[in-house]
Amino acid sequence: MKRKGYKYRIYPNNAQKELINKTFGSTRKINNLLLNEKEAIYELFKDYPELLKSHKYLTPAYYKTVYPYLKEVDSQALTSAWLNLQNAFKNFFTGSNKYPRYKSKKNFRKTYTTHTINNNIRWEGNGIKMSKLGIVKLRKHRELPENSIIKAAIISKSATNKYYVSLRIEYEEEIININNDFKKALGLDFSLNGFYVDTEGKKANYPMYYMNSLKKLAKEQRKLSRKVRGSKNYYKQKLKVAIVHEKISFQRNDFLHKLSRKLANSYDIISIETLDLIEMMKNKYFSKKISDISYNKFVSYLSYKCEDEGKILHKVDKYYASSKICSLCGLKKKTLPLSQRTYSCECGNVINRDHNAAINIATQGMISYLSSITEDGTASIA
Ligand SMILES: [Zn+2]
Which one of 154, 247, 282, 354 counts the least CB within 10 Å of its CB? Predict the structure, then answer.
């Protein structure tokens, strides 16, 4: 079984909007009630691990009797909020999460998750049917894979008051038979200037959407700082700032979708570097550029598009010295300072540094592919 998420814009009517917003508030309430209890119980039992472990926390069903308005919303959403916080605590204790927070009315991500029970989340008419909400109008820009099962739905509202549903689905994976014809391979060498250079020496020429909007963003933010916090004009201006951010993210997503689509359609084996993003994000200058480029997003778009097309996406080990190796003779230099933009080798190879690296990266993908072909002619590489 494969899992995936599909996000759609939805257009709830006024009554549905009201109910969705009520559900945001109710899941927030459950989060805060349970967090409150968690902290109290921890204080009480912290020296008695067995008691702490065996304590039964109050459930959403109980809270419904105390706060009857909770009965009006999708009960699965309440259960999810409750389970989410339980998991957040588990993750906090294993060190993979920060300490769970109370959610305030003003500042929290407006989203809730609901799970499918007895096929209650399903396509119907020109929309999607969900518990309590009924049929919500939806723009179906993309079909789900065949025979997929909707496991859960995440309903969210953006800062610009647009509504979305993200469907978490499961489906059977098709087994791809790779034919052993000539394969078109491509390697990408990422750089913070222009996004990447490919095997043919071409740059992606990524428009730095965020950087280019900085002036406009600063102007709108300046205006916001002059408004009285909490006033009507303040919220009006806040929406304007959110719209600038949203536009940047729309443009960026559009670019990344088109680019990854083009690559997945044109090549059979695409190799990319594995970047040490955590290390790179420590540098302030790099981190701004990386988040503008949205490298992770690009890789995830490219990855699922390659999968859809039966193409291979190969991730080269991050310790592979793609820059130092000569793409013509294979000789490896001991050092190569970053300032040196041209790679020149004693074999006579003189080539742009990033172009050289891209060829090496493509070669790595090809080697990995060729060595994975089995006798029955199938291949699978990571
Ligand atoms: Zn050489």
Answer: 282
